[in-house]
Amino acid sequence: MNKQRGTFSEVSLAQDPKRQQRKPKGNKSSISGTEQEIFQVELNLQNPSVNHQGIDQIYDCQVPEQSNSSLNTRTQKVRHCGHCPEEWITYSNSCYYIGKEKRTWAESLLACTSKNSSLLSIDNEEEMKFLTAILPSSWIGVFRNSSHHPWVTINGLTFKHEIKNSDNAEHNCAMLHARGLKSNQCESTVIYHCKHKL
Fold first, then answer.
1. Among residues 22, 23, 41, 89, which one has the fewest Cβ atoms lying within 10 Å of its Cβ?
2. pTM as predicted
3. Cα(189)–Cα(103) distance, rounded to whole angstroms?
4. 160 — phi, psi (to 5°)?
C-alpha cells in the first residue's frame, strides 16, 4: 500500500449543513469532496433533526484537536490518509459504511461481510452516543437464539448493553434506535451500517 501523508483541511459545520465549506491548508490536496458530501448528504437527508453533537469526533486516523468558533458552528479537522474507503466515515479507530438499503438482519450481515467488514457493533457508551447522533435506526451485530437465551454478538460474546423490548419472543435481533438499543424481528427490513476496525 502506498504510504501517503494526508493533507489537513477544515470543514465548518454550520447549523445548516448545506453551508459547509472546505478550505485546504497548504498547496497539496489529497482530500476529495467525498468526505464533505458524506457529512452533508447523510446528516441532512437521513437524519435532518440531528443536533450535530459528536460530529467534531469524526476523525480519519488520529484524533485531532477541535476548536469551536461559536455555539452554532463547530470546526473540525478532517484528514483522509487512505485507511478507509472514501465512501466511509471514520470515528476513533474504526471505519463506518453508511448504508441506504433496507435488508433483513441476515442479509445485512452478509452485505457487510461482502464489504470486508461486520454488521455495526457498539464497543462503548461514547460510540453509541456518536452513532445515535448521526445514524438513523439500523441493525447491529447482536442476536439471540430465542427469548430464553442471552443476547450475543456475532463474535459469540455476551452482549452487556440493555436492549429494550426484549420480552417479545419474536424479536431476536437487535438494532440501534434514536433512544438506544431495541429488539426487532430478524425478518424485518431495516437499514444497515457496517463497521471495520483499523
1. 23
2. 0.60
3. 4
4. -100, -15
Domain boundary residue, one of 91, 112, 129 = 91
The cell numbers describing 93, all together, are: 479507530
User: Residues 6 or more apart from 127 whose CB is under 8 A from it?
Assistant: 91, 92
Query: Comparing C-alpha atoms, which of 130, 196, 123, 193 is closest to residue 160?
Result: 123
Domain membership of residue 111 as a residue range? 100-198
Percent of the chain with pLDDT over 70: 59
Could you tell me the CATH number of the domain that includes residue 126? 3.10.100.10
Contact yes or no for 151/175 (Cβ under 8 A): no
Average pLDDT score over the chain = 69
> How many domains does the chain divide into?
2
- For residue 184, the cross-strand partners are 173
CA separation for the pair 33, 140 (Å, rounded):
29
Please report the sign of the dihedral spanned by the C-alpha atoms of residue 62, residue 65, residue 69, residue 71. positive
The grid coordinates of residue 191 equal 437499514
Tell me: do 50 and 106 sit in the same domain: no
Per-residue pLDDT of 95-141, as tens digits, reads 999 999 999 999 999 999 999 999 999 988 899 889 988 887 999 99
